[in-house]
Structures are given as C-alpha cells and as structure tokens.
Amino acid sequence: MPEAFAGYPRELTRYPVRYPTANSPQALATGATFLLLRALLGLDPAGEHLMMVPRVPARFGRVELLDVRGRWGQIDVIGSGLARLDGGDRGPGWAVSRATLVAGRLGGRSGPGLAFAGALRPRPTAHHRPPGGHPFMRATVIHAPNDIRVEEVPDAAVRTPTDAVVRVVLACICGSDLWAYRGVAKRQPGQRIGHEFLGVVEAVGAEVTSVRAGDLVVAPFVWSDGVCDFCREGLQTSCPHGGFWGEPGSDGGQGEAVRVPYADGTLVKLPAEAAGDERLLTAMLALSDVMSTGHHAALAARVRPGTTVAVVGDGAVGLCGVLAARRLGAEQIIALGRHTARTDIARSFGATDVVAERGDAAIAAVKELTKGQGAHAVLEAVGTAESMRTAISIARDGGAVGYVGVPHGGSAGVDIGQMFGRNVALGGGVAPARAYIPELLADVLDGAIDPSPVFDRSVTLDQVPDGYRAMDERTALKVRITF
C-alpha cells in the first residue's frame, strides 16, 4: 500500500471502479493503472459501485461529487483523458479525496469518466481516521447572540439499538433559528442548532427495521418513538420520548451527520432516484418543517374547497401555507406581506390577492376584499402580538385561525372577547410533521406541489454564519445548506 494511504483502514478503498469505455491509448493506460492500484490497495472486486454525480464541474480543478452514502466529497482532477463534463475534458487522471472516499464512475453529460479510489490524507472522521485519532465532524453551533460558528464536534454514532446515523446531504436555516440568533430564545454557549435536514442513512442500530444503510431519508424537526399513544394519534410532537434537534445533548441538523433516536418512528424513506434531482431534493427538504407547518396551519384553520383564506406572514412558513391552502381547494387566498420577491412567490403558489399594509390598514384591506366579512380561514405564521391580533380581526364570523408562528408575546394579541362574540375558533401549535410528510411527499413526487422556491440562497457548511446574517437582514428568505 502506498505511503500516502498508510494508517488508514483498507475498507476505505474497497470499492471497484468502472473502466473507461473508449479504446484509446489513454483508456488502456488508465485501465492498466487501475488494475495495478486495485492489486496494491486490495480493492474488493465484489464491492459495491459508488455512483458519483458531478456538482461543480471545473477543468483540471476541483469537482464535488456525491457518493452512494449521500456524502459530498471534493476531488482534484489532475491530468487529462476520456471524461467530458459539460463539454470539456476533465480526466480520468488521478482523483485525490479531500473529504471522503471517492471511487467509481464520474459521469458527465457528454460521456463517462473515471475517479480513482482515494483517501490521500483525508481529514479524519469516524469512518476514516488515522490510528490514535479521535472521531469528529463539523457542525454549526451557537455561542451567543449573533455568534454562529462551524466547529469540530464529536461525530454522530449509534448509541442505542433504535438509533440511526444520517449523513446529511441538505439542511437549511429556519426563521425560528433567528430567535436564538437574535438572543430572544436562550441557548447554551456551544449548543448545536438546526432542525431541518435530509440525507443518507449511514448506520443503524440492531432494532431498526424501517431503514437501512444507503437509504435516502428526510427527518421531521422532532424525533419520536412512533409507538406511544400520541404518535399513534398523529401528534408526534407530544411523544414522551421525543425531542427537538439541537437541544442540549443532541445533534443539530446543520452538521455533517446526525444521530437519530428512534429511527423507525422518525425517519421517512425517500425514493433513491431522487438523489440526483436537486430541485426534488430541495422540495423534499421543505417537508421537514416549513411545508408541513404550513399544512398544519391550513388544517387548524379548517381550509376546505371553496373557502376564502388569508395568510399572515410572508416567510417560508407563510408561503407554504399559501401552497397548502391551494392544495386543499381554497378559492380565494389573500397573502399579507410587503416584500415583493416573497409575494411574487405567494402568487406563484396560488395567492389571488396581496395585502401589503399592516395593522388596522391590513384589516381594512382584507375586509374590502371579502365584502366586509373577512376570511373563513386565517393562517398565522409570524408569532407576534400584532400578527395574532391581525389574524383574529380578519377572520370571518364563525371562521377559524390556525396559528403556527413561534409565539413571542403572542398571548397579548389574543382577544378572547372578540373571539367569543364572533364565534372565531383558534387552533394550531407545533406541527406534527412526521404525521404529514407521507401524504405531502406523494404530492411532491407527483408534481402537485413544489415548495422548493422558498429556498432563495444556498451556502456551504462553512458559509452558514453568512446565511444567518442574510436571513437576519432579510436579504434571503430561506437559506439552504449543501454538503
């Protein structure tokens, strides 16, 4: 074994690589070289092929790839040969891993190529580390208001028989994360953060039966055991064994991997073919929270075919509420928001009217649009006293308000007397996303709904602090994190 690979487990290079297909001197030389490497490195001819998907093509430069475990790796392509990615020669040459195992077929639009097995001085992780090293990964942590960092933390690992480890492919920043970022919601210094992610199962405990290593999965923002009374009733957020990602002692969703307690009751398996569809992956990521929460608001507000719906809030949850209302058959959907880029998305999601005013002016505008009656169903997706007061005031007599905005002074906006006199119902709370994901996933896969437009910026893990600043300054609606 070459010196560069000394000290690393042989299993790192156990995956075979497909040979070039062209009968050229370069192809023959590459094949011969591979056979030699295969003999030297002990590659297992019966091993599993890794499927590599080009992500950032670059001529004789760095290319990011997705392996069969769902982990993005970076390689440097050195030399030239047969592979063509988007019209330019890119390899095969040598492919040296910068982050994780990369071996297999490097496929481009114009033809196949080759990436050699590589673990040349990779950063140690729980799955490939030098002798005596300590396993770690990188994750987002919060130290104080406005102090978000990406740091090395202990790598996720199976601790109990019901656990699974998910290597994250996509994650995102939620509007509710901003309350901690702004210091409104208290966090311990160094606490993990983030609760929306999807990825590939990397390991499972002995009692896990619903998923296995290699499965593409999405996680709701709360884990649950799936067998308690509340879980069986579809209220997984009240599971006595449940919890929220990022709470003390747990992994947050904005990291390279997540230990998932009660994997059978928490994870939802996704179709494997979706791994190569960036738009579809992004749409499915929305199911982990914002789309499910918007749907919860719509159900709590009793949206049904032919009704008039008003949505208070133009954040990602509010916009998904518009999409949910359309899905449930609302006839008129009024979006309350004053950011044009966001209300444009609302219109594309099904909003028939937009009200940019606030306070009393917003109430008057909604009444004017509804013949003075108000909306049958109101979705409140902000969580402030003003937004709650507006929501109750624009509800039609006999109507309902579904509130899902994380409350911050929200009780001050609830006028029980007004609700009592006009028979306005109030429902909502924390969305049991695990109960909703299967049915919403079916519509995403069928193309009936597509919540992916709520993600208007992408960052890498290293750029997460910039993503928080962008959302805090309202220069981004919802930030997606790629790995």
Determine the mean pLDDT: 79
Broad structural category:
alpha/beta
Total beta strand runs:
26
Low-pLDDT stretches are 1-24, 42-134
Radius of gyration: 25 Å
Largest sheet: 7 strands, mixed
Question: Whole-Å distance between the termini?
Answer: 30 Å
Query: Roughly what fraction of the amino acids lie in strands?
Result: 25-35%
Tell me the number of helical segments per DSSP (H or I, 4 or more residues long). 13
What best-fitting shape do the alpha-carbon axes yield? globular
Which range best describes the helical content: under 10%, 10-25%, 25-40%, 40-55%, 55-70% or over 70%? 25-40%
Question: Would you mind describing this structure in some detail?
Answer:
This protein is of the alpha/beta class. It is built from 13 helices and 26 strands. The protein has helices at about 25-40, 175-180, 230, 265, 280-285, 290-300, 315-325, 340-350, 360-370, 385-395, 415-420, 435-445, 465-470; strands spanning about 50, 60-65, 70-80, 85, 90, 95, 105-110, 110-115, 135-145, 145-155, 165-170, 190, 195-205, 215-220, 220-225, 245, 255-260, 270, 310, 330-335, 355, 375-380, 395-405, 425-430, 455-460, 480. The strands form 7 sheets. Strands 11, 13, 14, 17, 18, 25 and 26 form a 7-stranded mixed sheet that branches. It has a 6-stranded parallel sheet with strand order 21-20-19-22-23-24, sandwiched between helices. Strand 9 (about 135-145) and strand 10 (about 145-155) form a beta hairpin.
